[in-house]
Design a protein that fits this description.
The chain is an alpha+beta fold. Helices cover 15% and strands 33% of the residues. It contains two helices and six strands. Pfam families: RRM_1. This is RRM domain-containing protein.
Length: 97
């Protein structure tokens, strides 16, 4: 396993993006920005489905791009933190559009 592998089975170089899964269907993008904003400057945040989605979903996923890649390691420490009613799962994510 090479040093960029991180146990994922594919190389992942330095990234400033995280994927947050197992989110409550009640969570909003503003709540996510507030929670993760304490860990570093957020360049971009995308919540799926968005806050104004017409249909109800059982869970959501959020992608957060920090200004600095060092914030990703700090953010991963929030894995298993209960937020609203679910334990968050935070993983680094490749920086593709």
């Amino acid at each position: 396993m090479n040093s960029g592998d991180r146990g994922l089975g594919f190389p992942l170089g330095p990234t400033s993006v995280i994927q947050v899964t197992n989110l409550s269907s009640a969570v909003t993008s503003e709540q996510m920005r507030t929670l993760f904003g304490f860990l570093g400057d957020i360049e971009e945040l995308r919540l799926y489905p968005p806050d104004n989605a017409p249909l109800a979903f059982s869970s959501k996923v959020c992608y957060i791009k920090f200004r600095e890649a060092s914030s990703v390691g700090v953010a991963q420490h929030l894995t298993n933190t209960v937020f609203i009613d679910r334990a968050l799962i935070v993983v680094p994510c490749a920086e593709d559009d």
